[in-house]
């Protein structure tokens, strides 16, 4: 079965600092991968998705970017964090042949001060 | 295009009483429907899913949901709430991609 690892679990960063969140997937190959953000008191917002290595689609224009350097690695980055980037970041993968069902990682709590 | 509306942002029940979390969807095609649960500071866990088979779907932890095409609804129910059910619940509709509802926070009082 598939497992999603997210690192780090929690992060506190000052405004203007860079960001790198990592997501790795085990137990499946060639997955579709997704980055979501949950701001306080809000639902899930899809940020990026990827159907393969080097292929990134952005859903929301902002100061974040994503990269997929390997089949099972998905990275969320920023050059300069804003206060509004605070939130809970979730990585997910789509299971092939499973009616678009997505499997979620444990999340990263980011606080920007 | 598809969309989903969770009719209650917050539901509060007493332990041992029934739970009803309401979800309505809109879709041009036959959708797949899901309910996910999220405990504080945790990822989302799949509770159950509807994929055009039986309209009454049973999930984990005693939850079930009924797909009603005529009402475009997919409400989540449980006969008897437990304290551990307190969490955020998300209804999701999927045709080509997944659309999440805004979530319903379930509180369970002792």
Explained architecture:
The complex is a heterodimer of chains A (113) and B (110). By secondary structure, chain A is mainly β. Chain A has no helices and eleven strands. Chain A has a single domain (3-112), classed as Immunoglobulin-like (Sandwich). In chain A, the strands form two sheets. In chain A, strands 2, 4, 5, 6, 9, 10 and 11 form a seven-stranded mixed β-sheet that branches. In chain A, strands 1-3-8-7 form a four-stranded antiparallel β-sheet, with no helix packed on it. Chain B has strands spanning 2-6, 10-14, 19-21, 23-27, 32-38, 44-50, 56-58, 64-68, 73-78, 87-94, 98-100, 104-109. In chain B, a hairpin with a 5-residue loop joins strand 5 and strand 6 (44-50). Chain B is mainly beta and 110 residues long. Chain B has a single domain, classed as Immunoglobulin-like (Sandwich), CATH 2.60.40.10. The N and C termini of chain B lie far apart (41 Å). Chain B is globular and about 40 Å long.
Which terms would index this structure?
heterodimer, A: 113 residues, mainly beta, Immunoglobulin-like, 4-stranded antiparallel beta sheet, 58% strand, B: 110 residues, 6-stranded mixed beta sheet, 0% helix, globular
Mean of pLDDT of chain B: 93
> What ranges of chain B have pLDDT less than 50 throughout 5 or more consecutive residues?
none
The CATH first-level class of chain B comes to: Mainly Beta
Mind telling me the CATH superfamily name of chain B?
A: Immunoglobulins
Biggest pleated-sheet summary of chain B: 6 strands, mixed
Q: Give the SSE order of chain B as H and E letters.
A: EEEEEEEEEEEE
Number of strands of chain B: 12
Radius of gyration of chain A: 13 Å
Percentage of residues assigned to helices of chain A = under 10%
Helical stretch tally of chain A: 0
- Determine the strand fraction of chain A and express it as a percent band: over 45%
- Indicate the CATH topology of chain B: Immunoglobulin-like
Number of helices, counting only DSSP H or I runs of 4 residues or more of chain B: 0
Largest interface: A-B, 17 and 21 residues
Q: Give the overall shape of chain A.
A: globular
Q: What is the chain-wise order of helices and strands of chain A?
A: EEEEEEEEEEE
């Amino acid at each position: 079965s598939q497992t999603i690892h997210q690192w780090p679990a929690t992060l506190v960063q000052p405004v203007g600092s860079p960001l790198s969140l990592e997501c790795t997937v085990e137990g499946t190959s060639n997955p579709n991968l997704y980055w979501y953000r949950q701001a306080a008191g809000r639902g899930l917002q899809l940020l990026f998705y990827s159907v393969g290595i080097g292929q990134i689609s952005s859903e929301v224009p902002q100061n974040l970017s994503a990269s997929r350097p390997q089949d099972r690695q998905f990275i969320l980055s920023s050059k300069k964090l804003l206060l509004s980037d605070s939130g809970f970041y979730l990585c997910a993968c789509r299971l092939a042949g499973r009616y678009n069902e997505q499997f979620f990682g444990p999340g990263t709590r980011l606080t920007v001060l | 295009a598809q969309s989903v509306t969770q009719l209650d942002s917050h539901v509060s029940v007493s332990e041992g009483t029934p739970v009803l979390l309401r979800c309505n969807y809109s879709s041009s095609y036959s959708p797949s429907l899901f309910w996910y649960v999220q405990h504080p500071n945790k990822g989302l866990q799949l509770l159950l899913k509807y994929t055009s088979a039986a309209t009454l779907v049973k999930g984990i932890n005693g939850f079930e949901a009924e797909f009603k095409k005529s009402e475009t609804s997919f409400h989540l129910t449980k006969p008897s709430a437990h304290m551990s059910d307190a969490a955020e619940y998300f209804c999701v509709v999927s045709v080509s991609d997944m659309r999440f509802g805004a979530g319903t926070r379930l509180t369970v009082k002792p």
